[in-house]
Structure formats: C-alpha cells, structure tokens
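Write out this protein's structure.
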Amino acid sequence: MRIMGLDVGEKRIGIAISDPMGWTAQGHSVLQRSVLEIDIKNINQLCQEYEVEIVVIGLPRNMDGSIGPKALEVQEFAQLLENSLGINIAYWDERLTTKSAERVLIEADLSRRRRKQVIDKMAAVYILQAYLDKQDSDSKRV
C-alpha cells in the first residue's frame, strides 16, 4: 500500500510517495498548478500508477492551531480530490514544514533558484514522513 503526500500551494503542488511498505517518504515531483480539473486529473494518474490508497494533505494551520483562509482553501481542494478520486484523504499539520525544508536545502548549499524548484517536493516529503512515523508509532502502541 502506498501513501501520497501533498503540499498544496497556490502555484505548485509538491508530491511525495511512500515506498510500498509505507515506511519512507520519497520526493516525487512538483506539479505546476493550472486548471483545477487538470490538477486533479494529474494527481489521479499518479494515484493509479502507484496504487495509492491514502492521500495525506498538508493543512496550513495558523501558528495558534486555528484554521485560516489558506487551510479552508486546502480543505476545499481535498474535498474535490476525494470526491473525484474516491480515495481516503488524511490531513497533517504542516506548520513550519516549508521552513524546515528550506533550512535543509540552504545547508545543502543549493542556489535560491534550485531551492525554489524543489522546496515544495521537500515539504511534501516532510508532511508524508511525519504521517508515516505517526502511523508506525501508533501501531507499536497496540
């Protein structure tokens, strides 16, 4: 079973996909946003290709944990995705994932231009890996 992680932004969607065992998140690609129907179609194709059973979407909460306008937009996108694909959607608090990803890329000495190309994919990896780690720790408690 594979799980997909998405970092949904206004201009780009970072995509990560788990290994078949659901243990590790790997960066896949960055989808340049266009028309909503095309975005959903492209994600659907990836879900079918990789036999994805769950899509984890980063939810951009405010720093106090509340839901703001951006989070509402992401929830609307997720609802459309769920209705269109018929696949389970999970949310993951994505606060500071982009900042964490950027810090790692700066430490790796990537140019600003190159960071811009991969930051969304890295954020999706952070979102998905955190979700996978939580699932693993929950299964160990049982």
